[in-house]
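Follow-up to my earlier ticket, as requested here are the two runs.
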Amino acid sequence: MWIIIVGYLVGSLLGGRLYGLLSGHDLATSGSNNTGARNAHRIGGVKAFLIVYGFDVLKTILVLQVSGPYFWQTALALTLGHIYPFWRIRAGGKGYAVFSGIIWAYDPWWFIGGLLILLLLIKMTGNSRETGLIMLVLLPLAALGSIGDFIWATLIAIVIVYHHVKEGKA
């Protein structure tokens, strides 16, 4: 059960803050003032995006690999830690990269398929914000084989959508 607490604490370690330390660009005070990968791309380009997104996905995958029977509770804790980090409750990310890590840890094929769909939708619409929201249905779809998994996956997606809508564009 300790892994759930570890999940929240690790979730609170943000790739955007790491990028800020490495580059000297504080994402919380630049661009959209969000510490997420999308704002990192605005400020520092593809390299910044990859650092922030990669760190946040990797931290999620690593913790979930050791979560055992507490996979979903830990996934929710990672999400809440990322969105509402303990060190500054309203300074977290939107949760997309953590969500990507959860999908990868749950089933890498769903992640790969989702990434291809996301890239296609972005190319077709030119809009990464709303297409990102569309991708939140992937995990509940992947989890349809188990009602318990489906409920947890849906709850996590709802938390991210709620936070996204509450915070507005970023």
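Run two:
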Amino acid sequence: MTGEQLRELREALVMTQREFAEMVGVSYSTISNIESGARTMSLLTRAKIVQKIQLDEGLFIFVEKSQKLNRLIHNLMVQH
């Protein structure tokens, strides 16, 4: 999950970074750094998010594969 995806998820839950961090059980700076791209999401943080908001881990995998497919399609369109 990218920082942008994390921000979109948090905003969909109508939560501030501090509120989201508290709910997940990580520091505010962790969420802030992930969203800004200064840090990648650790597997532990991902697991905490999945547990707290009851997301299926498959959703993360789907989103990542979707992004790769979108980039591939974009690159193909740009080349032609």
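The only thing I checked on run two: The helical segments are 3-12, 17-24, 28-36, 43-53, 57-79. Let me know what else you need.
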